[in-house]
Amino acid sequence: MSISKTYLPKETEEKWYSYWLKHDFFKSVPDEREPYTIVIPPPNVTGVLHMGHMLNNTIQDVLVRRARMKGKNACWVPGTDHASIATEAKVVAMLKERGISKKDLTRPEFLAYAWEWKEKYGGIILEQLKKLGASCDWDRTRFTMDEELSEAVIDTFIHLYKKGWIYRGVRMVNWDPQGKTAVSDEEVIRKEVNQKLYYIKYEVAGDGLPVASEDTGNTQHATRNYLTIATTRPETIMADAAICINPNDERYLHLHGKKVFIPLINREIPVVLDEYVTMDFGTGCLKVTPAHDLNDYELGQRHNLPVIDILNDDGTLNEKAQILVGIDRFAARKKIAVLLEEAGALEKVEDYKSQIGFSERTDAVIEPKLSMQWFCKMSEMAKPALDYVLKGEVKLIPEKFVNTYRHWMENVRDWNISRQLWWGQQIPAWYLPNGEFVIAKNIDEALVEAKLKTQNSKLTTADLTQDPDVVDTWFSSWLWPISVFDGFKDPDNADINYYYPTNDLVTAPEILFFWVARMIMAGHEFRGQAPFKNVYLTGIVRDKLGRKMSKSLGNSPDPLDLIEKYGADGVRVGMLLCSPAGNDLMFDESYCEQGRNFANKIWNAFKLIKGWEVDDNLENPNTIAIEWFGSRFNQALGEIESDFAQYRLSEALMSTYKLVWDDFCAWYLEMIKPAYQHPIDRATYTATVQFFENILKVLHPFMPFLSEELWHDELLGERGEKDCCIVAQLPNIGEINSQTLSDLEIVKIIITQIRNIRNTKQISPKEALELSYKSNSRVNYQQYQAIISKLGNISQFSEVDDKVIGAVNFIASTDEFFIPLSQNLDPVAECARLGKEKEYLLGFLKSVNAKLGNERFMSNAKPEVIEIEQRKRADAEAKLNIIEQNLIDLAC
To answer: Same domain for 614 and 708?
Structure first.
């Protein structure tokens, strides 16, 4: 093919993605090969591609493509999550635009609209993933409300209920007043907000009693006695059940056994004693509102306090509040403050900052609320799920998350699994006229259960009412690695037996407990195996100021715009260059630009090679260069393999980047490149083409489109229809000549020093220089004369027995090199240069000696690491000796 002047990502990406799909390169069916399986963390059907998705799915695609090239049967299962709360909110908004209210619809009518919305918008994010190059087996796409997956959810509910692990009861939950549903902990986003702290006076029952002065701690007498509490939520005082003080607080000893009146409504409540109260926070007095705070609820349980819920499901005050009935909680807060001030019960108001929970789905402020809900016991399932991780059967990457995981699992709470919504799997509970319930898969089975339970054969289905709630979306996604392979419907089918357990899961640390741990629980309960072997935990994508990327901050670029601007390969490289596992990614668009520049560098290198004319009659003058790059390629391949084995994908990419940009383009091609308009010999040309083909293989997981495009150029030979880079076998690590690698590092230093001298002395690269050396090492420099002469433009290269007086000198390894200049050497400038080099080496030597003098380092470091540091010290000392002698010779 004719190669364009510059790389054109857009047309390349569209062409090859379509080609891969057409020829089923992503498709997987069980066969005799070793399987490699990833199930996608299903994005919400409401979602569109954001930077977190970009990072997560780039990592997955790199792992899948690499496994495919290693000859494994790679299967990446895509799909979406039905996202009950978010989707229902979208559907309600759609209906509102059409002038329809949810409350005017029956459940089946609403669900018909919800499915209409899902069919129209639910697949957008998966289509966007294709732009990134995601090599999913799209024929396997699943949705958490597919019939088979929904059936699995219901069967799971029934199974766990029969084991006694699912129950119904009143508990404190996170309540979303806008969505009018309970939400899970992971759906609550904590934000620091500016608030007010209201100091409210509660009158003590009885007159003339001593009251502690808050300023002095001394007692004083007054005709009206009160204590002061500080709260950010004055609108909840009508739900107060007690005032709590620390029994050891000497300021309030006189209040033991007393009662106080709630301002405005004058209801009498007791003063209770509990060491839970912190004496040095606020006034040391705490209002206890069991219905509207989890900690207060637990306090209330300990002291047998009443629970007074003054809020409706939509966040307005109800009749139990006695005042401001029907007013929204935040409007009520302002009105209460005014009423308290008018009543003389408001001492002062201060500005205050604190963390508040917001619903991730609706952004409403979360309300702690006592509610009748369904719960799943976690303690029985948590222990084996913890053991899998502690025993290393499931590896968390990086390992720092093991302690976090252990803490969560050892302090696990029961899981609130019911949601007050219509979109989702409806809870399989059927209520009888007497208030009892039965659990069954459908109404016919429920009727049988009901007749048995009541011994009433006259019951009909008309007597049964199904629970209107749905199960938490996570209750379907915790089954994902099993249900996508129909492991519930057909537990012994070919797919589940072949692909389960999966290999790697790539996800975010914030759902380590809420999703990852629960999947491990489900895997153990239903398959007797953990669902995956490794969990790669990505960091959060942040901007360069460290802020989490979000639409509200306006600091998150549109991933599709980035792909349009820099190409999918450029964006993939940009994301991975700054994304070590488990650490937050400080994203800057310049990384994508760097990725695009890398693509162009590869493209230009290919153009250079393709433009060479071959002369079969020429001898090969580049044996050493070819041997060196062959060894360097194998060395880099070992580094890349090691990085992948440790899931250090960012480091693996950087090793690849340096191999291509530095070693191949900047050094190897320069070593072997023929003079302008001169031909190249066949042996060098053949070796170089082979090197480039192997480079494309290594690049492919990171840069699939560019590598596939160049793979099919005639330069690399004829390709069959399915002879594609995507399924090319990754190269194996070959021989490594350590001596050649070591020698060439010194040669590169020599050439770099020559170039530096040209720059500082303003000598043209076209002007040939003489170079001599005084050797103290075993390096055979004559062997590398051709490379040094070519890249340094050296006309004469020789060994000398003694220093060359009046020449510019430099040191490479332990050897000294001399370049005599036509102009006289400036001794002052040379002394300054040598002084700077000496200063640098002294600092370097100090740091190396400090490391070698550190007992902890010496006892923990590997022998080869210690040997490297000792070599560094010997080299630095040798160079210092030479510099010291030069300084003496120049009388500096």
So the answer is: yes
